[in-house]
Structures are given as structure tokens and as C-alpha cells.
Task: inverse folding
């Protein structure tokens, strides 16, 4: 269980919310079903990645629809400015197409409860059937514990670990009590609090990209292996035309998984070599506890991206043998997710 | 070894100096319990070969954990006469006994002038407490 309250949470409502978000995100918004969550990107005019975000569609307590967009903590200010730029007052107040948006980051806390027993642990604390909730779906719930003081929250079957699990957003005023209640509930199951370091290890084993490492404004979605989240034939959004162009061009870089022969860790920005030639750079690396091996993700020139290619990583001046391996490094059995 | 009888570098190495029957000074060098705790899960340890010259304040090896990688600095000038290969192959247990079975190298000391610059246990503990306060 981890505290992920640092992530940015932006709430959009009003009759123009769907149209506005469709013109901002790289994926369709109009066909997100109630309770569904969709992974997508926000790109700049050049097709560079500004952020990767999750968009959920819900109805509030009185049946009014709203979208919850969860953005990376480090990108929150940038994305808030980007939205403000694309949603000036005259646009937000257009009659019949009004958009009301609120940065609720600091009003809410958010916890990730991840692992194969997460549903069992959380079930007694919420009033929806978690067993039937599919991966990348969520719901407004009542929290069945006195610490929640009759308040609700939003629970979703999402996470950044590659493992089954849930993320729960609750009001900041009840956050500490709810955290304690979940921890208490999970004790018999072995639930322990973990930090961002553990989460980073898990997402890396699961081959998931991290903004600032695998994803930056200098990287385009096709290089990142995220072309599949760019819907280029529908509603226009910033960067769409540039992406159409980029899609046609041969890629400059490819995101790959590397497995190192030795135990040293290939860290962020370490050069990737093919003999004397520099052919890329490491974006994330760690020692995988699941595989007991040193693993890394990297961008390399496409001709060196084939699985099985033997490369080297320059680790503090010494080349270490590395081999291109398929991503993810490690695949767990996640409900509702193709394995 | 009792840590109170050791000398410490500000970079968290310890040394225990003994005089051999032939009068040569031999220093046993390791890394402190505090440093091992801060590094957490160790993944890699690189030690020099026997015969390598080491210099006070200069790196003689490297220790890496999931969190960080750090050079190991020699507390004295000398020559490596023994290396604890078992420590490098059993990193999980290095922190169990950092002042005993977790020693790293033994050095025949050629110049012990730097010993005067090292910290005794009390002074080292104080430094560690101040580091913790700054975090």
C-alpha cells in the first residue's frame, strides 16, 4: 500500500467537458463508458509528450457526469497551464458548452493498494462489489468505516505496479483515518506500507514508462511504443497533425528492455553502446527483485532494437554486457488483463 | 570487533589497526553499520585485487544498492594483502556483522599519517546523528 496523493487530480464537468477533453487528449473521450478509465497522452503541437494521464468517467452523488483526469505530480503545474491556455474563459463559458474544471489535487488524498489480495482486503470497506470490477474501471463508493465519517471516495482497479490492485481517492480530511483503517484491515493479509521506490521497481519490472524517464517532450509516442494510444483520425487535438507526419517517418529511436549480464545497475542516462558506437541511453534501471537480475529500459537506434541484440551499457566508464529482451520483464496474472 | 575500538572515515569506512609480529601495521577495513543501513538492499560490491596499492582518501572499490552507488575510500596508504571474497558473494548478510565477518580488505599500511584525521566511535556517531537530522 502506498500513498500516491502527490499525483495531480483534475475534475471536469459541464456540458462541454467531453468535447474539451476530446480536443486535449490523444485518445477518444466520447466513448468512455460510465465507470471506465482510459490511458492517454497529452501532446504538444510538435507531437512531443507533455504527460501521460488516466481519464475516468463517473456520475456524482446526484447523477451529474464528470471526468477525473489523473496527471503526473511533476507535470501538474505544466498541465494546469496548458489547460488554462486551451480553455480561456470565453470558451469555458460558451452557452450550452460550459466547462467547469477544478484542480482537486490538494483536496483529496490517494492510496494505491496493490497485490493479488487487494480486493479481499478492501471489499469489507466499500459498498461496491470489487470482484466484478474490471481492470481500468472505477466507481464512486461509500467507505464503510467510522474513520471515513460517512464520506465517500472513488475506487478504481488501476495501478502502476503491473499487479492486480486498486487506487482509492478520498477527501484529505479523512485521509489519515482511512489509511489506518485499510492498513488495519490488511494486516492479516500481510499488507505493508511502501514508498515510491518500491512502486518504481514494480512499474519497471512491468515495463511501464515513467514520465521524465521514458517519456519527455523530446520523445514522440511512436518511439515510446505508445502509438496505440494516439487516435489520429477523429477529433483534432494539439499535436495531431504533427503525429500524423511522425507516424509516416522512420522512427529515430525505439524503447527497449535490457537485461544486464552482471549485477551493476544501469541507471538513468547511462550511454548504451554497440562496441565503440554510442547507440542510445538508459531511461530507467534497477536490480529486479523478482528476476534477481539487473534490468533497464533504454532508447536505442531502431537497428539495435531487435530482441536478442547484444549491446553494452557504459556504467561509470566501464562497458557492461546487456541484451535486448522483450517488455515487460515480468508479467503477473492480472484480472481482466490479457496475459 | 567492537565498533568502539575502531576508527572511522567521514565517508563511513572503518579501520582496525594491528601490529604484526614483524612490526608491520595491518589495517582491516570495512563499511559502517550506519552506511549499510542507509544503502539498503545491496546488489554489487567491487573490491581490489591483492597487491593493489591504496591511498588515503582515494577510492579502492565500489558498493552499490538499489538506491545508490558509492565509492569506498581507503582510510590509509598501503597495499592490499587480503580480500574478503565471501563478503562480495554474500551481500545480503554484509549488514548482519559489518564489524566482523563483513570486513572488506586488509591493508599493509605504508603510511599511517591519515589515522590522525579519522574519527573515533563517539565522533563518528555524532556525525551520523547530524546527517540524520539534515534529512
Result:
Amino acid at each position: 500500500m502506498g500513498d500516491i496523493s502527490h499525483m495531480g487530480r483534475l475534475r471536469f464537468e459541464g456540458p462541454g467537458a467531453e468535447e474539451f477533453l476530446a480536443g486535449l487528449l490523444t485518445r477518444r473521450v466520447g466513448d468512455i463508458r460510465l465507470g471506465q478509465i482510459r490511458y492517454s497522452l497529452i501532446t504538444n503541437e510538435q507531437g512531443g509528450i507533455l504527460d501521460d494521464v488516466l481519464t475516468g468517467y463517473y456520475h456524482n452523488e446526484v447523477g451529474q457526469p464528470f471526468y477525473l483526469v489523473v496527471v503526473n505530480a511533476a507535470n501538474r503545474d505544466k498541465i494546469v497551464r496548458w489547460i488554462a491556455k486551451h480553455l480561456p474563459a470565453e470558451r469555458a463559458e460558451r452557452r450550452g458548452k460550459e466547462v467547469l474544471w477544478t484542480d482537486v489535487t490538494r483536496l483529496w488524498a490517494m492510496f494505491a493498494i496493490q497485490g493479488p489480495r487487494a480486493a479481499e482486503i478492501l471489499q469489507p470497506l466499500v459498498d461496491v462489489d470489487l470482484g466484478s470490477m474490471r481492470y481500468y474501471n472505477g466507481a464512486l463508493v461509500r467507505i464503510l468505516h467510522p474513520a471515513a465519517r460517512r464520506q465517500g471516495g472513488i475506487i478504481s482497479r488501476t495501478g502502476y505496479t503491473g499487479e492486480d490492485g486498486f487506487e482509492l481517492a478520498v477527501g484529505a480530511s479523512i485521509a489519515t483515518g482511512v489509511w489506518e483503517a485499510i492498513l488495519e484491515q490488511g494486516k492479516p493479509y500481510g499488507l505493508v506500507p511502501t514508498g515510491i521506490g518500491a512502486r518504481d521497481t514494480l512499474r519497471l519490472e512491468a515495463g511501464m514508462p515513467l514520465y521524465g524517464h521514458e517519456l519527455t517532450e523530446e520523445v514522440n509516442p511512436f518511439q515510446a511504443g505508445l502509438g496505440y494510444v494516439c487516435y489520429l483520425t477523429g477529433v483534432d487535438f494539439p499535436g495531431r497533425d504533427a503525429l500524423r507526419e511522425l507516424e509516416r517517418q522512420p522512427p529515430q529511436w525505439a524503447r527497449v528492455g535490457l537485461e544486464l549480464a552482471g549485477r551493476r545497475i544501469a541507471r538513468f542516462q547511462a550511454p548504451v553502446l554497440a562496441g565503440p558506437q554510442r547507440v542510445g541511453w538508459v531511461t530507467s534501471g534497477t536490480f529486479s527483485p523478482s528476476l534477481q537480475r539487473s534490468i533497464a529500459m533504454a532508447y536505442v537506434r531502431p537497428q539495435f532494437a531487435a530482441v536478442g541484440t547484444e549491446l553494452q551499457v557504459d556504467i561509470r566508464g566501464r562497458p557492461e554486457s546487456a541484451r535486448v529482451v522483450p517488455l515487460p520483464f515480468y508479467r503477473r496474472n492480472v484480472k481482466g488483463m490479457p496475459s | 570487533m567492537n565498533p568502539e575500538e575502531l576508527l572511522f572515515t567521514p565517508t563511513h569506512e572503518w579501520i582496525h589497526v594491528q601490529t604484526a609480529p614483524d612490526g608491520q601495521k595491518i589495517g582491516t577495513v570495512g563499511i559502517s553499520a550506519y552506511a549499510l543501513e542507509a544503502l539498503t538492499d545491496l546488489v554489487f560490491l567491487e573490491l581490489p585485487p591483492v597487491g593493489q596499492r591504496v591511498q588515503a582518501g582515494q577510492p579502492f572499490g565500489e558498493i552499490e544498492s538499489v538506491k545508490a552507488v558509492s565509492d569506498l575510500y581507503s582510510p590509509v596508504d598501503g597495499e592490499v594483502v587480503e580480500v574478503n571474497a565471501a563478503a562480495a558473494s554474500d551481500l545480503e548478510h554484509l549488514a548482519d556483522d559489518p564489524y566482523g565477518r563483513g570486513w572488506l580488505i586488509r591493508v599493509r599500511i605504508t603510511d599511517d599519517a591519515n589515522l590522525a584525521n579519522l574519527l573515533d566511535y563517539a565522533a563518528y556517531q555524532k556525525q551520523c546523528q547530524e546527517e540524520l537530522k539534515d534529512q
